[in-house]
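Tutorial handout. Part one gives the primary structure; part two gives the three-dimensional structure as tokens.
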Amino acid sequence: MCGVSSKTTKGKLMKMEDCTDVKMDSCIFDGSSKERNEKKLNMEEEMCRWDGSLVDVVKSSVLMKDTTLSNSPNGGITMSGGNVIIEKGEFINNNPSIERYPSLRRNIICSDSGVLNVMSLKGGDGWKDNTSLWMLNEGCSFEGIVTKRDSSFFIPVLESVETKESTDRMKLTFKGLLLVPCNLSFSVVKRKGEEKEIEKHDFDSNGFLSEREVEGSVAKDLISSCGNDVEVSVHVLFGNAESPSSTNSFILKNATASESDGDGNVVKEGNLTSSLWIIITLTIVLFIILIVSIVVTIRWRKAKNENKDLREIVNDTVKKDLKLIEIVTTKMSPKER
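Part two.
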């Protein structure tokens, strides 16, 4: 049985292999004096893979309670198989210091069918709801609060999408937070009523400009070939490659409201507006005529007792009330009349 408790380890790598029931209570692992691995890697490998963590767990079962891992550019924990339970854990500033990606962290990387159960955190990265935990899953089973996040590694935020057309391509510039090149892609969604068509696209290989900006492109006719009744939107995909999560969407092309007449011809929005005005005007006119009829009837009944001529009453009433109809119709534009 291997065990560590109430011990401070600074700048050293602890490795446990084929150990069972290891218990670490109130431990502090501080990587401030660890030298960074200077091995040259391409961007995606450097961001999404690492080794040399403070604690290396190989096919071991470990309980870490009230334990802090901090200031390690090469990672907090590396798991290869085994079972690790973290209770009241804390990961602080495990920052690889990669240019243009200052928010990137390396807390846990797990592979080879390990089981990681993060029961609770007492502070640090991921302590607040739906914030990035920076725990990379490379074929493990995750349990606990990790399963309640959109991604166990990082959660990007999309703030805007800008477009620029060229001869046959449309460049899309995505701006936001934590746009890190680890399993990051985007989808173009075409929607027509209840129907939806989704196309997944990879970002340009040189499109990752910083954690705040990334560029991609699609064929220009992917959008221009859509009918007026088709909405086109785009969002970023992240997390598990097989079942990724997505950010909020931004509209690239709005659907234009349209209707069809009885002969199958499209009625444009402007024509619909004119037709609506005509219907409203006719309704008002009919209402006024009804009021005129009621007024004439009332006045006629009253005039019978005064021996007035009915034609005189009608002419007098119509002259007054038809003036209102003239006012309503003159306010309409010539096109609407």
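Part three, for discussion. The chain is about 20% helix and 35% strand. Helices lie at 43-48, 221-224, 269-304, 310-330.
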